[in-house]
Fold each of these.
Amino acid sequence: MNNLSIPQKEQQYLAQTYNRFDLTLSYGKGCDVWDTAGNQYLDFTSGIGTNSLGWANEQWLSAITTQASKLQHISNLFFSEPCVTLAETLCQRSGLKRAFFCNSGAEANEGAIKTARKYSSDKYGQQRSTILTLTNSFHGRTITTLAATGQDNFHQHFSPFTEGFDYIPANDINAVTQRISQGDVCAILVEIVQGEGGVITLQADYLLALQTLCLDNDVLLMIDEVQTGIGRTGKLFAYQHFNLQPDVVTLAKGLGGGLPIGAILFGEKCQNTLGKGEHGSTFGGNPVCCAGANAVLAQLDENRLAEITQKGEYLANRLRHLPKVKSVTGLGLMLGVEFTPEIKVADLVNQAIQQGVLFLTAKNKLRLLPPLIISEQQIDLGVSVLHAILSDS
Ligand SMILES: *Cc1c(COP(=O)(O)O)cnc(C)c1O
């Protein structure tokens, strides 16, 4: 049996942890991707928010191939230019002070959690180690980041989970005030827009009150920008919509333009919390991934960010006018659409594939994370496919 198809071999040889669409992709350019049968698809997924500049962006491709031909990896025993340049750019554009590089969102959040615990134990001793997160949040798939994730369905099968997390409802400042007054809280970790939770943006007044509360109590404000960061919402970082100054920011998905890289940014207070030998990651700061990230950031200047905002508003507005839409939520090019109950989003996504357009879901919503370079024409094409399906159903 050597002529099994790719999906058949997947079933035989890969751990069956993913529900895949029946589509084997072959190559992509810009916002278009082709399957092995030669069918073309317009992409509103960006590899789940990773391919910021679409497929095969020329500057990005040239940066990573040039770097790969010089040094593909060096370890953190030596200095290298791409990693230091990336840290400099991220600090200058975020207002934070230092960066640590790793490989994924979960790993970045793990490092943020270690930072919060150590910051507090250095200053206040052992009894102040609780980290608050929000109900309906998502922070990753490791044992600790699952514990940080405020959704009960993620807290099954793998006990015991890491201790020291507590969950509070979003947009409820009294709940935070009360919880912090118990004296054991060292940090709060939030997503500005809950992505996996259904593309829900936190309220501005809540975020500002949260920041004040954190400052007054020396509780670290940690923002998980793994999905919202690197231009996705029309600012380089989503907290910049609300003029926040977080103590810790975590990044991953869009940073490498499709290569695996995560980052933790540290503000003034905790910039020296993790000292020599206290944290590390073999592949962290990999020169090829950092060269890719530098190429992504170089293209996300203020003009490009303004375009993302404008295209996001255009897309949201077109989505609001579709049949059977209850609400459109999100920021920039990170959008969620809720439909009237007769629409099943899984069916909608499968029908869209038949029509040559790729979408995501989040909970009961359609989720759109197109490449940041998508054109209005391409947006129109995607929306017209949704319109045709929704009009028929
Ligand atoms: C995707 C995501 C993560 C996990 O990132 P991985 O790279 O899959 O580990 C963490 N937080 C948020 C907000 C995410 O969207």
Note: The domain at 59-299 is CATH 3.40.640.10 (Aspartate Aminotransferase; domain 2).
Amino acid sequence: MEDNGIPEEQIYQMLRKYKEKDLTHRSGRILGSMCTCPHPVGIKAYMMFLESNLGDPGLFPGTKSLEEEAITMLGELMGKKEVYGHIITGGTEANLMAMRAARNISKVRDPEIIVPKSAHFSFKKAADMLKLDMKMADLDDDYRMDTSSVEDLISDNTVAIVGVAGTTELGKIDPIEELSRICLEKDIYLHVDAAFGGYSIPFLKDAGYDLPEFDFSLPGVSSITIDPHKMGLAPIPTGGILFREREYLEVMAIETPYLTEDLQSTVVGTRTGAATAATWALLKHLGREGYQEVSRKCMEITSHLAEGVEKAGFELVTRPELNIVAFRSSQIPVEEIASKLENRGWAVSLASYPQAIRIIVMPHLKREHVKAFLADLELIKED
Ligand SMILES: *Cc1c(COP(=O)(O)O)cnc(C)c1O
């Protein structure tokens, strides 16, 4: 740290030097991320609430109302208007809260959870922090959670089953309807991780896409993770956790002696209200139609990309159900495809199960980017 401060303009100049090293979503080069360019309305709303702290909501009753309204809107989107939850930092924190609620409400001594093999790694963190024994259910031929494997894993110690609506690697939707039936019958908590799919499945259904039920309209669903900072176009960090009953928040509430609220259920204490303002503003501004447009466009480009990938002689791992294309080749190992694409300036990522190149067609990816990418994909065969 300097003794004498550096003038403001010089600071910005220095910062720009660092920023130049970063990739931008706008360049269309980021192909393997679930984040995207935040929407300008979300950015403006975020900046308006930079000093608001939802960890001390008595001081910020306006922001608190925004959070309640945002949660209600997200609940409506997820098939139930009266839900209880918070706008938090992302899917990881949401999944952690859900697992904590499920564990606390059960009186089980050695709690176990069942997640699909395709579950996000945040459940490993949750299991570690909460001392849960995590059982991994197999996937079926099309990489969805195999419910017979789930039934085999259920024991007296099972405190939660997790289904994913829009898996991180392949965008697959687990059979939540069947999981709901199983969980109701056995009285087990069901969490749906819709961090990625929550902001697109309902809109795509509106647009006529044939996608399965996955939300609170299924009576067995206890909680849902839905991330505004992915397909919701909100700035990072913005996540959402929704619970069917208030009780789930209550079982993990901690007394807060010096704050304006007496009890707090979130993991984080001091908590930005800016993420809430951005979520609220974008839901109001874009509405169902605006978000439908966003998802529909992504799906059109997804189909276009999937077709092009096959035409270039690569093999799709699965038909895209949401806006993710995963592919491999019988001739070139996946790592080699990835490094060749990287040499040509594309930031791709790898799916682990099965091994594949994974491209998430987020809203920053336009037709001209896909065109340039497919041209390079043809070329790497000769590299
Ligand atoms: C991205 C993702 C997460 C983790 O969310 P973060 O916001 O990165 O913490 C959890 N589950 C699924 C299905 C995801 O796609």
Note: The pocket of pyridoxal-5'-phosphate is lined by residues 34, 90-92, 95, 120, 122, 164, 168, 193, 195-196, 227, 239 (CB under 6 Å).
